[in-house]
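anyone seen this seq b4? input:
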Amino acid sequence: MIKQGLEQKQVQKLSPLQIQTIKLIELPIQELEQRVKSEFEDNPVLDDSPAEGRDDDDDQPKDISLDELDADDPIPSYRLRVNNYGKDERPEYNTFSVKESFTQSLLTQLGFRNLNPHQMAVGRYLVCSIDDDGYLRRDLDTIVDDIAFRENIETDYEEVSYLLGIIQQFDPAGVGARNLRECLTIQLRKMKQTDDVKNALTILEDHFQEFTNKHFQKIMTRMGISEEELKAAINRIVKLNPTPGGQIDDSYTEQAQQVVPDFVLDLVDGELRLSMPRFTIPEIRVNKKYADMLAEAKNSGDRKQKEAATFVKQKIDSAKWFVEALKQRHNTLESTMRAIIDYQREYFTDGDESHLKPMVLKDIAEVTGFDISTISRVVNSKYIETHFGIYPLKYFFSEGLENQAGEEVSTRELKKALQECVDGEDKRKPLTDDQLVEEMNRKGYKVARRTIAKYRDQLGIAKARLRKEL
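predicted toks r here
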């Protein structure tokens, strides 16, 4: 038996203005400026040139602001300073170098190789299959099947293996390896083949099990080398990078792509002052020709004039929504950044990383009243210039753990303490992860062994057996 009934549901739908605001929030400042320029270029009704920047010739038609166009029309005023050159050239802004993404770096290197389109497509799939540590941890036969299924590209084991060999020649050395042994040998083969490098290669290729088990005497006997020669070879190995891909780290100084900060934070007489000098809200001005068209259509009964006026009004409304979205973006970014500064005030005052408190997106969402997804969009691809450097907003967010006193400390503080433990260890007897847990406990930090292993990997610190020196 089929029953019919009415059910009332409350469904939230985003308005066009909300959708447009969300899209604008995601854009970094350089892309936003291009987006504003495109908006005015694509809308024939509008002119973003300032009145004071125009020729004062009385014979030239003057563009009309929205207020002048129709005083009775309930359209809010957007008579703010425009974002263009005006009479003076735009002030110069510094750009800053930041780290290029790992995958993008590999794809760039792939692009310099003389490969046909088919090989390039397979190569790109391989690059995108490499994990954050720089390893290709998937079987090549499986990759062959996946490329056929996902990309509709036919290949075979031999071609994939050949292209992987090319990728393994890329920087950083060791990238594209399928295990630690291969990663280290790739790095050694790129070096000048001195005696210690050759011995290190032999150890990894022929005596890897003995090396990992620290059976040094067996290695010396089987290779017929002295303790000094073994020590020199091991020194080569321990200086290699076991994770060539690395993790997202705290360093943003490598030169790659150029970015411009959305925010500038100055410390003036001990007071933090935030500004957003790069961008201001443009003024909407309607081209004189279209303004006249609207005025004539008011008292006209001509159908074509009415249709033309409707088109003009739609374009004006579109621009009005766009500028309102820009205002909301500006307010959202400013509110979020001020909340971050208030939360991390001690850090922003002196730039001391140990003063960076644990902070997650939820913390800022609760302060601002915005959704976590909105905070995430604000943080993504945005930068701030401070008196101690340029940083992405993501830098200021980190999880926290409790110390022995029950106080919450940031993961960066823990990593700094862990690095100090490793730097101060006896290299003949490096600290194991369990011993590092004990050392961290003595420093007042409660951490589990798995946490130590995770942070050690993120810091690029090898396991104890790979840090051992004779």
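Residues 102-238 form one domain. Confidence is low (pLDDT under 50) at residues 51-62, 70-99, 247-257. kinda curious what u guys think
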